Amino acid sequence: ELKVEQNPLFLSMQEGKNYTIYCNYSTTSDRLYWYRQDPGKSLESLFVLLSNGAVKQEGRLMASLDTKARLSTLHITAAVHDLSATYFCAGYSGGGSNYKLTFGKGTLLTVNP
Amino acid sequence: NAGVTQTPKFQVLKTGQSMTLQCAQDMNHNSMYWYRQDPGMGLRLIYYSASEGTTDKGEVPNGYNVSRLNKREFSLRLESAAPSQTSVYFCASSEVEGGSVGSPLHFGNGTRLTVT
């Protein structure tokens, strides 16, 4: 059964700094998802990484996938307060029409002025 | 566009009471999911339905039942609520494995359930 681990679980950053969130998963998964959740809100899809070496960027966030290392990273560049949220990675298992996502516990990111 | 709609948004139950959480999507998605979110636990899959007429257990199915009423609707029922079922429940939907798209899950706004 797929297990997904994120670290760190809590991250307090200063504005303008860079940092990386790590997502390790236990079994072969050829795709990886990143979501953002604001307090009291639903989850918003950020990135879908579909193959080994995939890299996607949106603003100050960049996600990558290394399927051989079973590792995905979410890199934050020059953090701003608006990035404060909880970030989840999720691994994919199953196939065809019968698939599901297994989520990590989330990383609570706080960006301080 | 409404996307994924969950009702109710909030609910308080007493131990032993039953209730049904409703979920409907208007994106013509085949797959639907129920997750629960607890502090420090991330999201855990309760049940999912790959298509109309099929359902499968997820990681934490005990104490729950589901019904895939039609392609749009997927309900979650608590037959005899327990305090351990206090949680935020999210419904989600996605297209069938979408090839290059990757079919991310689209989430509803959640139901906050408290069992006393």
List keywords for this structure.
heterodimer; A: 113 residues; mainly beta; B: 116 residues; 7-stranded mixed sheet; 4-stranded antiparallel sheet; globular
Architecture blueprint of SSEs:
The complex is a heterodimer of chains A (113) and B (116).
Chain A: E1 4-7, E2 10-14, E3 19-25, E4 32-37, E5 43-49, E6 55-58, E7 61-66, E8 71-76, E9 85-95, E10 98-103, E11 107-112
Parallel strand pairs in A: 2-11
Antiparallel strand pairs in A: 1-3, 3-8, 4-5, 4-9, 6-7, 7-8, 9-10, 9-11
Chain B: E1 4-7, E2 10-13, E3 19-25, E4 31-38, E5 42-49, E6 56-57, E7 64-68, E8 74-78, E9 87-94, E10 106-107, E11 111-115
Parallel strand pairs in B: 2-11
Antiparallel strand pairs in B: 1-3, 3-8, 4-5, 4-9, 5-6, 7-8, 9-10, 9-11
Overall average pLDDT of chain B: 92
Number of helices of chain A: 0
The proportion of strand residues of chain A reads over 45%
Shape of chain A: globular
Structural class of chain B: mainly beta
Biggest sheet record of chain A: 6 strands, mixed
